[in-house]
Write a structure and sequence with these properties.
Glutaredoxin; Serine Threonine Protein Phosphatase 5, Tetratricopeptide repeat; two-stranded antiparallel ribbon; 17 helices; 48% helix; globular
């Protein structure tokens, strides 16, 4: 599949080919992400190029053609991972679709042609933790991650080394050097120019990652501890790895389970692409059901995709909300991120013609409960729903807690701006400035 990745959490690791979504815009209607969607939700939700045509225009993970050092992958590029050949024994089929690099494996070497910024990393030193992030100057979410990664480098100075690797640049190394030079005040970590795409091949392609930004955490023993979107839990993982409390065995088991489930789903994903391209939405919903059935917790992104497709493709809102309620009480009940995202879609997605805020509230209330009341993302989502319900006082209280629990300076600043907005609406604060 050509698109992006959501490897770290399993959320949004496989979504339909973006070409398919382009072709159904006329039926569903392309609506860019509302600016009211906070950064962490946009980043958390859209590790693939596009989550759904109903929220078309969310670019949170840019597609790549591995091994290329030029422009982004053009539409129609063949799958990086081949689909299962009919009649192949299940065990062989799964193995054929499994990534060659998984959590728990030894980290590959870095092949770097030029160090654009920072001290060269010639090898992974035992006892030190590393973050290797693949990015590009033209990638909007990559640029959004720069201050966040710089913040993490400052936070873990002395114990963690962060390296940003790029090669997918239409204008080559000179453009990267100019970009970094002009943004020097934003970079606080090393930047490397890939050696003819060798690092991209050894890391991204081998791990089945097809979009950027993607970060790899290398633990003190030189093993891959985590793979994912930077905003989707990188800081929490680093805290555990640095403290020596990260359970690599459990993380590797989760990663293998997710990889095997997605390998089983490979032929169904190909079928789904075709159905979406031909706007056969009812058939697409049935295919999504089969994908979800493979392993519902792993395939949580498809549960949300089904809601969006029912609401904005099939345009059966009754069925969409029935599915949402069943998901809140069922496979999503212990997944705060997916619950929060479901609520954001119901509350903010412009293609939803009728908003059932009561269901959105149930989703966010459960997200807060499932996260122990300390997830800033869940609290912010709950605040947004309560604000939409005109319960301004509660929205202010919830958003204030989101600000309190958020550790990232970048995200906390955005939460604070939203809190100012809510307080202004309640008449208890200054009028907020324009939202960037």
């Amino acid at each position: 599949m050509v698109g992006g990745n959501w490897s770290g959490s399993g959320l949004f690791a496989d979504m339909p080919h973006p070409d398919s979504l382009d072709k159904i815009d006329s039926r569903i209607g392309a609506s860019a992400a509302p600016k009211t969607w906070p950064a962490e939700v946009r980043c958390m939700a859209f590790g693939r190029l596009i989550f759904a045509a109903a929220i078309h225009g969310i670019l949170a993970c840019a597609p790549l053609a591995h091994g290329q050092t030029g422009a982004p992958v053009p539409p129609g590029t063949p799958d990086t991972v081949p689909n299962v050949v009919p009649g192949t024994p299940p065990s062989v089929s799964i193995a054929r679709n499994l990534p060659r690099l998984l959590v728990g494996d030894a980290a590959p070497e870095l092949s770097v042609a030029s160090w654009v910024r920072g001290a060269p990393v010639t090898k992974f030193e035992m006892g030190r933790v590393y973050v290797v992030e693949f990015w590009a100057t033209w990638c909007s979410p990559c640029r959004r991650s720069i201050p966040y990664l710089s913040e993490l480098q400052e936070k873990y100075q002395g114990t963690v080394t962060i390296v940003g690797v790029t090669s997918h640049e239409p204008q080559g190394l000179a453009h990267v050097e100019k970009f970094v030079r002009q943004s020097e005040d934003k970079f606080d970590y090393a930047v490397a120019w890939d050696d003819s795409g060798r690092s991209d091949s050894a890391w991204m392609e081998s791990a089945g990652q097809e979009g950027i930004p993607t970060a790899f955490v290398v633990d003190r023993a030189g093993r891959i501890a985590w793979i994912g979107f930077p905003h989707d839990g990188l800081d929490a993982v680093l805290q555990q790895v640095v403290a020596g409390k990260f359970d690599l065995v459990a993380a590797a088991a989760r990663a293998k389970r997710e990889a095997e489930a997605r390998a089983r789903a490979a032929p169904l994903r190909a079928r789904l692409d075709d159905q979406l391209a031909e706007t056969r939405f009812t058939e697409a919903v049935a295919t999504i059901d089969r994908i979800i059935a493979i392993d519902p917790p792993v395939m949580s992104e498809y549960i949300l995709w089904k809601f969006t497709l029912l609401a904005s493709g099939v345009r059966d809102l009754d069925a969409a909300y029935k599915h949402a309620q069943a998901s809140i009480d069922g496979p999503l009940k212990d997944d705060p991120r997916a619950l929060a995202l479901l609520a954001w879609i119901i509350t903010e997605d412009r293609s939803i013609e009728r908003r059932d805020l009561a269901i959105a509230e149930r989703a966010t209330a459960r997200a807060v409960e499932a996260s122990g009341g300390k997830s800033s993302a869940a609290l912010a989502a709950h605040a947004r729903v309560r604000f939409a319900q005109q319960n301004i006082a509660e929205a202010v209280a919830l958003q204030a807690r989101a600000v309190e629990f958020e550790s990232s300076k970048t995200i906390r600043a955005e939460y604070q701006a939203r809190l100012d907005e809510y307080r202004a609406a309640a008449g208890s604060g200054p009028k907020p400035g324009p939202r960037k």
